[in-house]
Amino acid sequence: MLKATLSYDPEPRASEATPAESVVQETTEGAPRAALPGGFADFRLMTGAAAERTEAAWLAGRKVPEGQWVGFYDQDGDENADLILMLRTTEGDDRLKAEKASTSISQEFRNFFAGAKARDTTSFDAGPYGGGLSCGLTTGPAGDQAVCAWSDATTFAAISLLRPTTIADAATTTLALRTAAMSLHGRG
Prior knowledge:
By secondary structure, this protein is of the alpha+beta class. The protein has five helices and eight strands, in the order αββαββααββββα.
């Protein structure tokens, strides 16, 4: 007699993603939070007239969705954006909380990369904050551009790198950005 056994092991919801224990011990509230960093690696957050000009051109009359922060980063000092960060946190965003309670990180990534029309999407190590980090390529005005996303229990971030780069280098840049963004809050 042959017996068949079925096992169902659903993917965890995004809200269940946890950081490494060492990160939790370093925070005062148990879960790290994110914010726009003033800079990381060679990138600096654009401010003043350059940021306002870039935001006006990028948004083209649209408004930033409630609960989302947008940061424009310059890498080479020419006051033109080389990287755009769109960051959402569950802090004060009930819609994102509900999304994270009902979808997995891989579902979030599938939706994001499909909307971005990305190809060659690849998962990378998400670092000590856990969750997921993936990057892919899209076709921009100047050719291929990398887009990346990270997600965990409390954040979802989308990154567009506007200069040509490899997917692996884009992932390294995104991890450095994530580390800087997550290190801003929750430290004891």
